Amino acid sequence: MITATIGRIFLDAYNKKYGTQYDAQSFFVKVYYPLFFDSNKYLQWVQNSPFVQTKNGQKVETLTSNERKEKLQDFIKKVEDCREPDASIALGYPASEEKEFATTSGQVTNMNMPTGKDDIFLSWLGSSLGVGLQGGLSILFFHAEILLDLYDGWRLYRSALTEINQLKGYQINTWNGQWLTHRYDTKSFCQDQPMAGFTPFETTKDALSVATQSWIKILISISRHFTNPQMMGYVYNFGQTNTTIGFIPFSLDHIRKPLQLYIKFFGTEEGKKAEILWGTEKGFQLCCQKGVIGIEAMQPKGLKQYMTPDKEKDIRIPKYNEKQIINFHTYQIWLLAMLNNEELWTKSIEFAQTLQAYVNKDKKLSTKRSNLVKNILTSTSKKAFLLALSDIASDIESFKKIEDNAKIIHMMPTDNVPYYLTLIRFHYAGLSNKNNQ
């Protein structure tokens, strides 16, 4: 199963990095168990496992060290005695059912695949390396460096639980998401003081808990840290009813692209402020249905309404509202990223300037010309654009720029046309905004 595969990748990388020779069971007993379960606050709660089963109403939080060690021995004995592993001892494996898989089964197959005892221990390591996201889903990454960095975060979560009485446990996957984002923040992370500036907590009722990180922040952080063009992940959810999305490629090049373009055209400081707006149009699960997470998944919320223009309603960029201006800039950059041609930024600006000059040249004809330009700006197809353009072609001085854009639209893939036309509309609105100041 996938959890065991991830566990194996991690353990091999751990042994190589630290010069150890742990097998799955010895690592579980000597390293994993002390971190996760040898305390009155567990890092992870595994339903129906020996670690959470108590007698006479006793709570896990009140177990003594010896009682916890007894549970470890119970677990090891159950592993030794089992013929067919179930989800109570092998995480990500099917729940115990005689005839068919239960709704709490996950990552299962109808193929007859042998499961060794090592795989059972490895499944715990792999499950604990899942990166929790807002919305309840998690990602298992196959990249060894990410897994080792997540392990470093385990130790810090244990320290936080020990030092902060009101901080609740059982949130290792949620912690992983917060930790990875912080770990790959080149500006705030300090190797010598890894917890400096790291405040992933939120208050819920009377307890302090780890806040769930957004998927886009996690992937942005990963895309900045690694130069890989692509990285594979496994998307799933373990809960009362498990969800399996499956193997999803994350196109790191495409995730980086709009961030880099934003900084190029609007500066680093504003680019940082814009990060919370990326990937807000659709939920992560819906984005996964495309089969890959890339530029399309980065779409900021609210742009869709401008992709279908209304002749009665112009795009209006606010003059002094910084938040809305940044929002509009994310729209422009995402459109450019989808077009995958930086030259179209200049071409679209020049075309918008040409249309502005055409409207402003003769005040007596400004209303007529504005209507003709509006026909161009509200076009949604090649044919409509070229027809509207022909109405002003004979009456414009910068015919070369008109001709260039006609060629661009004509040669452009049909799917890209709405992106380019919308980008022109935004530039035109921006010019109008400047002229009215």
Helix-residue proportion:
40-55%
C-alpha-based Rg, rounded:
28 Å
Low-confidence stretches: 98-107
Q: Distance between the terminal alpha carbons, to the nearest Å?
A: 62 Å
Strand fraction: 5-15%
Question: What is the global morphology?
Answer: elongated
Count of beta strands = 6
Return the string of H and E elements.
HHHHEEHHEEHEEHHHHHHHHHH
Which whole number gives the mean pLDDT? 89
Main sheet summary: 4 strands, antiparallel
Q: SS-based structural class?
A: alpha+beta
- Distinct helical segment count: 17
Strand order of the largest sheet: 1-2-5-6
Task: Give the topology.
Layout: H1 2-18, H2 24-36, H3 65-81, H4 117-128, E1 131-132, E2 138-141, H5 144-163, H6 172-183, E3 201-204, E4 207-210, H7 215-225, E5 231-237, E6 243-250, H8 252-266, H9 268-274, H10 284-288, H11 304-307, H12 322-339, H13 343-361, H14 366-377, H15 382-393, H16 399-411, H17 417-436
Helix pairs in contact: 1-4, 1-5, 2-4, 5-6, 6-7, 7-8, 8-9, 8-12, 12-17, 13-14, 13-16, 13-17, 14-15, 15-16
